[in-house]
Amino acid sequence: MRSFQEFLSALEEFRRESKDLRHGQALMNVLYEFWPEKYREITAGEHDCFYDDSKVGATLERLEREWP
């Protein structure tokens, strides 16, 4: 599995290329590519930031803690 830092770099790049998406949408899309199991675990839960950008910080903190 790729590192959390690689995930953050990919997220930054994806956001530059996909300016029409909000931060939470971009994060969840990149997470699906990097770690589909964690994406499925987070979806529709308290850390699902796809529809709520205010959850991005908490989502990133959780991912950093749980990243293998």
Question: Concise description?
Answer:
The protein is mostly helical and 68 residues long. It has 4 helices and no strands. Helix 1 (4-17) packs across helix 2 (23-34) and helix 2 (23-34) packs across helix 3.
Structure description:
The termini are close together. With about 70 residues, the chain is mostly helical. About 65% of the residues lie in helices and about 0% in strands. It has one domain (about 5-65). The radius of gyration is 11 Å and the shape is globular. The chain is built from four helices and no strands. The chain has helices at about 5-15, 25-35, 35-40, 55-65.
Number of strands: 0
Low-confidence segments: none
Tally of domains: 1
What Rg is obtained from the alpha carbons, in whole angstroms? 11 Å
Class based on secondary structure composition and strand pairing: mainly alpha
Sheet having the most strands? none
**Average pLDDT metric:** 98
Q: What letter string, H or E per element, gives the SSE order?
A: HHHH
Query: What helical percentage do the residues reach?
Result: 55-70%
* Count of helical stretches: 4
End-to-end CA span:
8 Å
The percentage of residues in β strands lies in: under 5%
Specify the overall morphology.
Answer: globular
